[in-house]
Specification:
The complex is a heterodimer.
Chain A lengths: L2 H32 L6 H23 L4 H34 L4 H23 L16 E4 L2 E3 L1 H23 L1 H11 L1 H6 L4 H27 L5 H16 L4 H49 L11
Antiparallel strand pairs in A: 1-2
Chain B lengths: L13 H19 L2 H26 L8 H16 L5 H23 L4 H21 L1 E2 L3 E2 L4 E2 L15 H23 L2 H11 L1 H6 L4 H27 L1 E2 L6 H14 L5 H20 L3 H15 L3 H6 L7
Antiparallel strand pairs in B: 1-2, 3-4
Helix pairs in contact in B: 1-6, 2-6, 2-9, 2-10, 2-11, 3-4, 3-5, 3-9, 4-9, 7-9, 10-11, 11-12
Classes of the chains: A mainly alpha, B mainly alpha.
Chain lengths: 312, 322
């Protein structure tokens, strides 16, 4: 096996890790600040993918443009439209349902959002059908590019990795440099105190929810050209996101980032290497288990994750 | 029978009536000879056992396990794999299914019980998911196992004593097991052990400072729960004659939580009622429309928002605990 292949797989792992981070960043704040168990985060990923795919197809058909740069522009606009629709839908849910649940127990959250997830799956099935939906990559990002002399890599994957990293940097600046970010950090370590000091915690909740939904939808719609989108795709990534959050420590953005890259690498490299040694039946199964074993290992020594923000 | 057995109250009330009606229905159902109805009823009985085992953790222990389907799967897979290895004797495979599920619960419990709250919910979910992938990797020969699942070549035989191929015999057998599980669970939750478990739920710090090893008590509860669910998993395998990774899917774990909550947690009858309602709704609505989840999902949200105490809360006399 060549070095080239290994480097490519590592880059794929980082790319997958960045997508996981986009999911995990929002969810870890929702868990950490609101103490709200949200199972619909994966649905936002799926809906983002569907709405984005539909938007791109609709815009392309509407304009009839064929210039590759204009088509790329349409792709970006479609992505943004998909995110906007998903965030809007989530905002409606936040106002009508989630707000009534904040005061409830974890069990209430689990059941209600589980119900919502079942609904979303059927909703997507009725609206978009149960067949996988595909989106072509933007025409300017079709051919691989040379990242270092002699080594080429998919330009689309590279592009979404860069977008993901930019989003992560933006999030970092928002959290560490702005007043809102300060409130979010304060909320993650002690929610009652923030409310007690007279801050409008409800507005903060709405903001965090919208932020989380936007990032999840971004991840969903950017991944669609690679994997296509179908009903149920969000759940798989949501459970991986849970693993990431738990390893990183609930409420910690930094923890989520490190754990995302770690899980992305373990997952991708495991799927690549283990089947070679263990055969094509056991290999993929063990590779899929590897991340959970990593999680079990971390939790055995640090039951609240690597970087749990201090409480009280 | 000692006074108040099963319910902990002296006078006859709605709960006793509900139980008697349910028992009577389950007893006379095989006489109608409707194979479909009988199958549904047996399924309710088997899944009730899992729901009860989950409620021991959830209602009495305050531990929200989101991965209980793992035991449904472990019981089924042990039975399936052993049968393929040529061991079909019920006196061997059933104890093996229970024992392996208890061991699984012990290993998983030692890690998950170190965590609390949201962590616990997600870690139980993640462990079930891990076993889901493991089940995808279990293959018997060329044709069986993996994601296509494992058909049971022949129903379990108890040295010729019980004929599981007769649906009525199997139905009565599961009913007897359910009654036994109810009796044992009742004894358990009202024993000193059960009171410690409830104390851990209500105030762990106080239980600890009274000298109780809360981790140990919870671990034992987790193992008992896993054992009961594993037994149910083995029965489920005999009912369906098939087990697949779908049995361990996290949606099933969610369904099990729904059964317990809709029926009423922190009681032993609640999970049975909840399972019955869930299975009937599933069969009922899915006959009307293939999109039954689009109806069921919102129903669930309404139940959480407006009817938190479950159906059991409606039939329980006011002011009584548990």
């Amino acid at each position: 096996m060549s070095l080239l292949l290994i480097i490519e797989q590592m880059l794929n792992g980082v790319q997958f890790g960045i997508m996981l981070f986009l999911m995990a960043a929002g969810l870890t704040l929702i868990f950490g600040i609101m103490d709200f168990v949200n199972l619909t985060h994966g649905s936002l990923y799926m809906l983002g993918g569907f709405f984005g795919a539909k938007s791109i197809a609709w815009l392309t058909a509407l304009t009839g443009w064929s210039d590759i740069w204009l088509l790329t522009l349409l792709f970006v606009l479609g992505v943004m439209l998909g995110i906007l629709i998903t965030v809007g839908l989530n905002a409606i849910l936040e106002v009508t349902i989630f707000r009534r649940l904040y005061s409830g127990t974890h069990l209430d959250h689990v059941l209600a959002t589980f119900g919502l997830l079942l609904f979303f799956n059927e909703f997507a099935k009725i609206l978009f059908g149960s067949e996988p939906m595909n989106v072509p990559k933007p025409p300017t990002l079709l051919s691989p590019i040379e990242i270092i002399p002699g080594i080429t890599y998919s330009s689309y994957r590279l592009a979404i990795t860069v977008v993901g990293i930019l989003a992560a940097i933006g999030l970092y600046l928002l959290i560490s440099r702005t007043r809102v970010g300060m409130l979010i950090r304060a909320g993650a370590s002690n929610r009652e105190m923030v409310a007690g000091l007279g801050m409008n915690i409800n507005r903060l909740f709405t903001l965090v929810f919208a932020l989380g939904a936007g990032l999840a939808a971004l991840a969903g719609v950017m991944t669609t050209p690679l994997t296509s989108v179908q009903v149920g795709i969000g759940e798989e990534i949501m459970i991986l996101t849970f693993v990431v959050i738990v390893i990183g420590g609930i409420g910690s953005i930094r923890g989520a980032f490190i754990a995302s890259i770690l899980i992305g690498l373990i997952d991708t490299i495991g799927r690549f290497l283990l089947p070679m040694f263990l055969g094509y039946t056991l290999g993929p199964a063990i590779a899929a288990m590897a991340i959970y074993l990593a999680m079990a290992g971390v939790l055995f020594f640090r039951p609240s994750g690597l970087f749990a923000p201090g409480r009280g | 029978m000692p006074k108040g057995l099963l319910f902990g109250s002296r006078s006859f009330d709605l709960r006793h009536l509900t139980m008697l009606v349910l028992l009577a229905v389950m007893l006379i159902l095989p006489l109608f000879g409707d194979a479909y109805l009988l199958r549904v009823a047996t399924r309710v009985i088997v899944l009730s056992m899992v729901a009860i085992s989950l409620d021991i953790l959830l209602g009495y222990g305050g531990l929200i396990s989101f991965g209980h389907a793992m035991f449904l799967g472990s019981g089924g897979y042990v039975l399936g794999v052993l049968t393929y290895l040529g061991i079909g004797n019920g006196f061997v495979v059933y104890p093996a299914a229970i024992a392996l599920s208890v061991v699984l619960a012990c290993i998983v419990g030692m890690i998950v019980l170190r965590t609390v709250g949201v962590y616990f919910i997600m870690i139980t979910l993640a462990f079930a998911q891990m076993l889901y992938y493991l089940a995808n990797g279990i293959r018997i020969g060329e044709n069986y196992g993996g994601d296509e699942g494992l058909p049971l070549p022949s129903r379990t035989d108890f040295l010729g004593a019980l004929n599981f191929n007769d649906p009525a015999v199997f139905h009565y057998f599961t009913l007897a097991i359910l009654v036994a599980i109810l009796y044992v669970s009742y004894k358990l939750v009202n024993s000193r052990f059960g009171r410690v478990i409830k104390a851990c739920r209500d105030n762990e710090r106080r239980a600890k400072s009274l000298g109780y090893n809360t981790f140990g008590y919870r671990l034992v509860a987790f193992m008992i729960s896993g054992g009961i669910a594993g037994l149910a998993g083995a029965l489920h395998m005999n009912l369906q004659k098939f087990v697949s990774p779908d049995e361990l899917h996290w949606i099933i774990s969610g369904d099990l939580l729904i059964m317990v909550i809709v029926g009423g947690a922190n009681s032993l009858i609640g999970p049975i009622i909840g399972t019955g309602v869930f299975v009937l709704l599933e069969e009922g609505i899915s006959n009307l429309t293939e999109h039954w989840m689009a109806i069921f999902g919102p129903m669930l949200i309404l139940i959480v928002l407006f009817g938190r105490r479950g159906i059991y809360g409606l039939i329980k006399p006011k002011g009584e605990d548990g």
